[in-house]
Write a structure and sequence with these properties.
Blueprint lengths: L1 H7 L2 E10 L13 H11 L12 E9 L6 E9 H7 L4 H5 L8 E5 L10 H9 L30 E5 L3 H12 L3 E5 L5 H14 L32 H12 L16 H17 L3 E3 L2 E9 L2 E9 L9 E4 L2 E4 L6 H9 L4 E3 L2 E10 H9 L21 E5 L13 E10 L2 E5 L9 E5 L7 E10 L1 H5 L8 H17 L5 E5 H6 L16 E3 L8 H17 L9 E6 L6 E3 L14 E3 L10 H18 L8
Helix pairs in contact: 6-16, 8-16
The structure holds flavin-adenine dinucleotide (FAD).
Protein name: OLC1v1035461C1
InterPro entries: FAD-bd, FAD-binding_protein, FAD-depend_C, FAD/NAD-bd_sf
Pfam families: FAD-depend_C, FAD_binding_3
């Protein structure tokens, strides 16, 4: 028995432990409740749940599942066998019978959960022990692995510019600074304190600061956002955990490590970014807000630095030239001027598929009742036991589909909800006053009266070509076309054109009184069914009818479509090498994050920035470990 017991020691993970809502303390409780102990006892086939010591169990994931008739919280739990046996030796016989079962019970390790990495800072600090300079020229000047001599040998740290302080730029800066590079973080927008005031002036007085707004400024596009931290990379991957743990170090609540659908909300993101900034500065990173990179300094096919203009105090400045060994480009996908500048330098870029559409808004109460039925009362504006309800819908549309006549564009399109913000508001994400585009944000409690989400349709090269848009930036021209149309339909001053879902389906103007909207700058009834080419409109109409089958009540005259949602992901990819993260056409340039076409969302952009930081540190000879 002793030998068998040895084999079982360490951590076991128990999955899919379902606790009915009435037996759970609610969404904010992340400990081990009596209801959860009952489910653990069932999994162990141990008859007396109250005899299990809660200390032996740790919740690693908690989600809410309202899909079935009986909504429940679903847990993943780690069980520390050594602790369990020391506190309750009577469980030994039951543990001995435990067998690994895929997706239900897993034996993680003898020592503990080695799959979970420590915080990013620790990873980097550990890696520091590996630091070794690759190669050395005769005069003792270190060289990188390509043999290129560093302009600033390690004695005087390699100089790196990181352009853009969104999640990708922040994480790249963090990694590079931890490895000892001399990092300058250059951001065209303002620090969160001033940015908050600029956004306030936009929302209250319609004053758009073109360099400090919902897209540009400290933290990037994700700061005044819903702060959803879900990602398709896989929430248990060590890189995602490293990012989340780093966010916790900077002030995010620990619940993001456990929640099945982690989110922060703007009120949590702003102080977190301030802490991130302070830490970077402690590491010696120079941060220049209100400074836009207008050009790259290029010699041969090598970047030698950047030319910046002081966009705030001196907008007409002809620019300051700053030399760097490498430039990390983390500019997001709204920096259209930067794409244009790259085109002038023949930097290799290719078109990328993305999606366009409209943002739909319902009263949150309606979404709660569609998703939860009677349990909707438990939401209580984000204060209740169950989370504010969200949804995710998707439909594959094919041009032979019955009832549609999608006569041009690609044969198959997907139409799906995107960036759903429960208890949120629709916000203006234009960066140019002649264009109009929107997105959604929320605060941590998600307590507003509205639920909004983008409903978008995939578009690709043949859509852009139908408008005679050519070249790598054809997708950008395509976005701009609809942003300008939306601005005209709204009649100016950032008023957003809207149509009820029922009128959109019937192709009629919403003449009756419009349902209320969370959008603060005003809405105006318009023919949104005429905004996009017929194939896109029909795909949206067809999908709405399908979504209604899944979420009865979704199609309603109190649901309001807002135009236009165009910046779902980057319309361009700046091509780079898979190993080194360096541009395939310009040495010393490292395109990263969403704007470069390698990420979509806060977490994936941060992960890309982190890996790019490792790759560049390696290239600069600051690190010789694996990436
Ligand atoms: P960005 O965050 O776009 O950062 C780029 C930065 O570069 C900006 O700060 C910009 O000012 C700066 N910059 C650009 N050009 C220059 C230049 N020439 N010189 C100097 N600086 C420059 N994602 C989620 O995962 N969850 C959400 O809930 C969510 N909600 C969103 C809500 C809104 C309103 C918006 C707009 C986006 C939302 N997103 C969300 C998307 C998410 O914000 C992006 O995917 C993410 O921020 C991309 O990170 P990034 O670092 O690649 O680029």
């Amino acid at each position: 028995q002793i030998n068998e017991r040895d084999k079982l020691e360490g951590i076991w993970r128990l999955f899919k432990l379902e606790v009915p809502v009435e037996k759970d303390p609610g969404k904010d409780f992340l400990g081990v409740s009596d209801g959860l102990l009952e489910q653990i006892a069932k999994a162990l086939k141990f008859s007396v749940a109250s005899m299990l010591p809660p200390e032996a169990f740790t919740v690693v994931r908690k989600s809410f599942d309202a899909r079935k008739k009986e909504p429940k919280f679903v847990y993943t739990v780690n069980m520390d066998v050594n602790q369990l046996l020391s506190l309750q030796p009577r469980t030994l016989d039951f543990i001995l019978k435990l067998e690994p079962r895929i997706g239900l019970v897993e034996h993680l390790s003898q020592q503990g959960d080695s799959g979970v990495s420590g915080d990013l800072t620790n990873i980097i600090k550990n890696c520091r022990g590996d630091v070794g300079i690759t190669g050395s020229a005769e005069d003792g000047v270190p060289a990188n692995k390509n043999g290129r001599l560093l302009k600033n040998p390690i004695t005087s740290k390699p100089k790196v510019a990181v352009v853009g302080s969104g999640p990708s730029g922040l994480f790249a800066s963090l990694v590079l600074a931890e490895f000892g590079a001399d990092v300058t973080l250059i951001e065209r927008g303002q620090a969160v304190e001033q940015r908050g005031r600029d956004i306030g002036a936009l929302v209250v007085r319609r004053m758009l600061q073109v360099e400090s707004n919902f897209c540009f400024g400290e933290g990037g596009a994700g700061t005044w956002s819903d702060g959803k931290l879900v990602t398709r990379i896989g929430k248990n991957s060590s890189s995602v955990l490293a990012v989340l743990e780093t966010l916790v170090n900077f002030g995010a609540p620990k619940s993001i490590l456990i929640s099945g659908k982690p989110h922060l909300g703007t009120d949590k993101l702003v102080p977190l970014l301030r802490n991130f900034r302070n830490y970077l500065q402690e590491l010696g990173v120079t941060i220049r807000f209100g400074t836009r990179v207008d050009d790259l300094l290029v010699e041969g096919a090598q970047v030698m630095g950047v030319r910046v203009s002081d966009s705030v105090s001196n907008p007409s400045s002809t620019g300051l030239k700053l030399p760097f060994d490498a430039v990390v480009l983390a500019v997001g996908h709204s920096a259209r001027d930067t794409y244009q500048m790259l085109l002038c330098h023949d930097v290799e870029m290719v078109r990328k598929d993305f999606a366009v559409g409209l943002r739909v808004e319902h009263p949150q109460e309606l979404i709660n009742s569609i998703q939860y039925s009677e349990l909707a009362n438990e939401v209580q504006s984000g204060r209740g036991k169950v989370p504010v309800a969200d949804y995710k819908v998707a439909e594959f549309v094919n041009n032979q589909h019955e009832g549609t006549s999608l006569d041009s564009g690609p044969t198959n399109r997907s139409c799906y909800s995107f960036c759903m913000c429960p208890g949120g508001q629709v916000v203006l994400t234009s960066t140019d006053p002649s264009e109009l585009c929107i997105n959604g944000m929320s605060f941590s409690r998600r307590s507003s009266r509205w639920a909004n989400a983008a409903l978008v349709v995939s578009v690709s090269s043949s859509d852009f070509e139908a408008f005679n848009f050519e070249g790598p930036l054809a997708g950008v021209d395509f976005q701009r076309e609809f942003e300008r149309r939306a601005a005209l339909m709204g009649g100016g001053k950032f008023v957003v054109p809207v149509q009820t879902v029922t009128d959109f389906l019937e192709g009629t103007l919403s003449v009756r009184s419009l349902p209320s909207s969370s959008y603060r700058l005003g809405v105006k009834a318009a023919n949104l069914h005429e905004l996009f080419p017929p194939n896109i409109t029909q795909a949206l109409q067809h999908s709405l009818l399908t979504f209604e089958k899944e979420l009865p009540g979704f199609v309603s005259n109190i649901a309001l479509l807002h135009g236009v949602e165009t910046r779902t992901s980057s319309p361009v990819q700046i091509t780079r090498s898979g190993d080194t993260y360096e541009s395939t056409s310009l040495k010393g340039l490292y395109p990263i994050g969403e704007g470069a076409g390698y990420a979509g969302g806060i977490v994936s952009a941060a992960v890309d920035g982190m890996y790019a930081g490792f790759a560049l540190a390696k290239n600069l000879g600051l690190y010789n470990g694996g990436i």
